[in-house]
Amino acid sequence: MRQIITHFTDDDLYKFTMCCAVIDNYPRTMVKYCFIDRDNTVYPPGFADELRCQIALLESVAITDEEVDFMRRRCRYIPDWFYNYLRGFRYDSRLVSVRQDEEGHLGISFEGNWSETILLEVKVLAIVSELYYIMTGEVASLDYKRYYKTSYRKAERLIEAGCVFSDFGTRRRASFEAQDTAIRAMKERGDTLAGPGRFSGTSNVYFAMKYDLTPIGTMAHELICAIAGMYGPQMANYLAMKVWSQTYRGALGTFLYDTYGWQAFSLNFSEDYANMFKGLRVDSGENSEQLDLIVAKYRSLGIDPRSKQVVFSNALNVDSAIELQRYADDKCQPSFGIGTHFTNDFPGIKPLNIVIKLIAVKITESWPFYCQTCKLSEDRGKYTGDPATVRRFLEALHLAE
């Protein structure tokens, strides 16, 4: 079977920025991740074997001079030493365990040094998604000419509605070609349509380079989850903001706040960080309700919320983004990160509902045990972690019923 991932930067920007922050602050930390299929999908026979082959093929993928030069130009906030690290980085398939049970359900786990395992997540998810459609034969029904027209029209509607939007769709794309087609269509429509909105870029660094776009992204839940595992969830957001600000000195200032829900974050969101960070990202909960909480918090700190960016990325499509734009327009500076709806929206194709989450951490390799961690967010259906850890964190945060 052909190799699915062939470019080192065919990955989301936040994995690189977080890897840099991890090396800078937690160079000896060890972690465990696990794969979660929320739909309990039955994968075709032999899927695990093919997936192992694809992960092994990642070991041949290295960053190129062209990719380094692009990131240096467009990601100036990343310190130069990190590119020397990436030049020497090689994926290690031994850090990944893949299994498939008799019923066809898939299990994947990672374990190793945080700075090495962190760059596997998005690539493995993209491989799983594309490989699934290849092995089920559904790839044959993907009509890319039609998809270009559909994506072009999506961009047109969003621009005309005043939405500032970007592609966040690498992890659950139908294929590399699907994401390429969608980005090309949105880029070309954005270049020809002068409207109140705009296509601002993509989280995928390779496609940003290919189409001369801005790579979009900052950080993910795993940073807060790991810190919570090491030090407890009560101050995890505060410590994460401190770490992030020390590494990037005010750049990349959009904070993902919902790892342990709004209440815990709000208590940690002091005036100094509220002023320092450019804005917040909403990734769970009801979007308008979350925005109202954000607006009220900024106002309580004497900050005009209209001076702050709020990035919405919670399972959006074109219609919900446009509706939210109307609601948020006079409250903040709204923008939208849209994922699966951009890169896996083919007739008759059901996108996989898959994630990989960090579940355990130890501060250094010398510790004899891991500390369990979890993610709570604003949606109970998105809680991840073993039930005992979830209960313990809920109690620690006074959220248990």
Structure characterization notes:
It is a single chain. The mean pLDDT is 97. The strands form two sheets. A six-stranded parallel beta sheet has the order 5-4-9-8-7-6. Strands 2-3-1-10-11 form a five-stranded antiparallel beta sheet. α1 packs across α11. The chain has helices spanning 13-25, 47-57, 65-74, 81-88, 114-117, 121-136, 144-160, 176-192, 205-210, 221-231, 236-248, 261-268, 271-276, 287-300, 318-328, 340-343, 387-396; strands at residues 30-37, 96-100, 106-113, 164-167, 198-202, 254-256, 279-282, 309-312, 333-338, 354-362, 371-372. The chain is an alpha/beta fold and 401 residues long.
Features:
5-stranded antiparallel sheet, 17 helices
Shape: globular
Spans of at least 5 consecutive residues with low confidence: none
Give the SSE order as H and E letters.
HEHHHEEHHHEHEHHHEHHEHEHEHEEH
Q: Biggest β-sheet: count, sense, barrel?
A: 6 strands, parallel
Helix content: 40-55%
Q: Please tally the helical runs, counting DSSP H or I stretches of 4 or more residues.
A: 17
Strand order of the largest sheet: 5-4-9-8-7-6
Whole-Å distance between the termini? 50 Å
- Rounded mean pLDDT score: 97
How many beta strands in the DSSP annotation?
11
User: What radius of gyration results from the CA coordinates?
Assistant: 20 Å
Q: Estimate the strand proportion.
A: 5-15%
Structural class: alpha/beta
